[in-house]
Queue: 4 jobs
Job 1
Amino acid sequence: MKKRILIVLLITIFATLPAESQCAMCRAVLESEESGTAAKGINNGIVYLMIFPYLLIGGIGYVIYKMRKKAKLEDN
């Protein structure tokens, strides 16, 4: 069972598609440039900013998990 979960996790991680994270207005303005370097920079910045809410929720979830595990061990 653990092997199956690991395989699904690896496939999920490595089988991702690139995503465009710009709003329609930002994309229209930035595509008018010929070089496109500003558009790539803005897109990367938006993707990096999206990471922090997931890290925050993951950290809170980890703390809750550890607290519940500690409380369960204290009850036994």
Job 2
Amino acid sequence: MAKQPESLLGMDITKYVGDLKIPGIDVETVVASQRKNIEALTQANKLAFEGVQAVFKRQVEIIRQALEESANVARELVEAGTPQDKAIRQTELVKEAFERALANSRELSEIIAKSNGEAFDLLNKRFTQVLDEIKDGINKMKPH
């Protein structure tokens, strides 16, 4: 992962926080923790973006497939046959299209759920680490 800049709008965060001179606060630890937070958010955003890309790619594939199938269906329905045969085939085609639409919706939902789950897990892990870091910081401040 790329090293995060230590300045925000040209301001050296370490120096600024260090100038506050808060007793018992290790500035380097605070800055390192915030850097980890930014890295976790960056990674979570990357995972979310990859999920959106996967959904979009799959939607394009579904549309392409639907267009091809529509052309085949149109040819099939134009072919000779009794009105009853055509009605039966139309009913079968509607059923197949409905089942395919449900399967596609389920697949897209699973892609989204997987992406969201990965991002959530990453942020949850970082949140737990932050709580541990806070606890460790408090323990370091205790008189021994």
Job 3
Amino acid sequence: MKMAFVVYYEHVDAQVMNILKSLGIDYYTRWENLKGKGRGTEPHIGVGTYTRMNFALMIAFEDEAPLAALIAALTAANEKARRPDERIRLFQMPLDRIV
């Protein structure tokens, strides 16, 4: 089992949600209005000239096939990103148990 955290700029939220829907991934925990700064991107901190924010999803995968499909879809989306801020990040880690 694996856990994925998907972190992205709020501007690409509709694109991320469409990717999940197209893959049949209808299970996640979502956080909105997160502050942060990625490597090579502008800060997304909600104040001053950096008024944009980040969103994040936590997705638990019991089967690795949907995770592999998500990684492929996000990789394809990132290839089309016009700016580094529009890239969608996925952080994968082991998941020991779901209760």
Job 4
Amino acid sequence: MRRLLLADFLHPGEHYHYARVAIQNAEPVNRHRHNFHELFWVTGGNGVHWINGSSRPLTPGTLTFIKASDEHTFSGALNIINIAFPTATWEYLSQRYNLPRYFASTPIEKREHPLSPLHLHDLDMLSENVASGERSRLKIESFLLDACQFLERLENNATPAGMPQWMREAMEKICEKQNFQHGTRYFARLAGRSPEHVSREMRRWTGKTPTDFINEARMAYASSRLIASDEPILSIALECGFESFGHFYRLFHATHRMAPNAFRRIHQSIVHG
């Protein structure tokens, strides 16, 4: 049984490991444990999580907490975001802030959280800070606290008080590729309101414009495709709904602080278990 060590994945001075990973395993291989905690969520594809003698289906939006003693591996074709960090970091935060016991010795189904396309988009945005720059202790602690608050809001069905249902439903739908590629006017069509009304209400309830929100969904999708495929970058830009490659390039660079080809080179990898 392999036991993965966090130190093997970290550079000097780093306090956590972040990775966007493509998995291509026809069968489960290389079951392992680790000396760290991790959480991962599926951004694309379908597969199976083999953990502690059971098999759990994985689909886009599945968020899972993994404790150090878990024995697991994957099979299928999956794109995931994985964040690994010291068990002691979680124990410190849990004791100090009386956090929910997401990593407790509970059945794995209690440590899984299905996310809607909108919530998956929200989590991707929440993780942007830990994805880039210095991988400090402050960053991972802040992310874990934010992630706990994020899940508590979901469990309590919390949305901003008074947010219209039509807006929430339109925001859910526009996160899907077949919708966001058509832009803001299609967003208004999904909402059943005028573009002007949708823009005013979006700013009021989210602080974002419809364009901002759609571009975030496009960037999340583009990131996933860059990792999971060898598709030309221009094709991905067109698939996202951008008519100008220059616009796509500038927006991607502003989002990820690197060019699309550099992002693909750094993050694209195949993991066999």
